[in-house]
Amino acid sequence: MSIIYLVRLPDEDTDPDSLLFPLLSSDRLDKMKRYRRACDRLLCYTAGLVAVRAAVQLTGGNIFDTMLVSDNLKPPFAQSCGELVRLGISHSGHYAAVIADRFPCGIDVEELTRSSGVMESAEAFLHPHEREELASEADLSERLMSFYKLWTVKESYLKYLGTGLSRPLDSFCVSCENGSYIIRDDNTVKVLCRTLTDACFSAVYCGKEPDIYEYTYSGLLNELREMINNEKPVSVSGQRDTSEKDADHSQRSCSYDSKETHRA
User: Fold this and answer.
1) Cβ distance 69 to 79 under 8 Å?
2) Whether this model's pTM surpasses 0.70
3) Domains, the chain, ranges and CATH?
4) What is the model's pLDDT at position 233?
């Protein structure tokens, strides 16, 4: 079964907590540092932490034995307690989104804008039937929302396939029928599409409908700190380290009020 983690970042600028850097791979940290804007670095950092958290949730494993793996030629995945967890990772605006599954999956989140410029520049890359469907909507705001839903579904599908944009967006068609999105291609997949206050996200998967976990940024970090405090590192032999935890760490507490868990 797939699970989706969705985190909203704060509006104000904040620096990544370096205490959680050990949970991220060197590739993720290097990628984070390459971003010039502080907000993009925070998004990259948060998305990496969300991916680790989702992998632990899926496998029930130890956070110290879970590692995010990045490969430019393949979709991201995680190794958690000997299991391979397939991931879809996306971030935009104030949101970081991750889908985790034992089977291929994909997710895309896009910040909503009122300007039609993005839609107009991207429509040329869509399938002819998709352009016709968008053009049939007379109201600009409704057409813009339909575009974002369509775009996130298509991006999610390419991530599911593992091709990224190396496969043309107009090589397959997405249609909306009775409020549900259908991908017309050679693969049989399921699609989930949701709108938020200021963003839209879609996920593509092949199993049961995903559970969705929504967090604030501070809620995610507090939970990860609590997990670190409560869990013991795994030794080379696979046995948990029984040495005492640092006294300062053991005094930290966490509130889970900022987290919501529900079915999509």
Assistant:
1) yes
2) yes
3) 1-105+207-264 (3.90.470.20), 110-205 (3.90.470.20)
4) 55
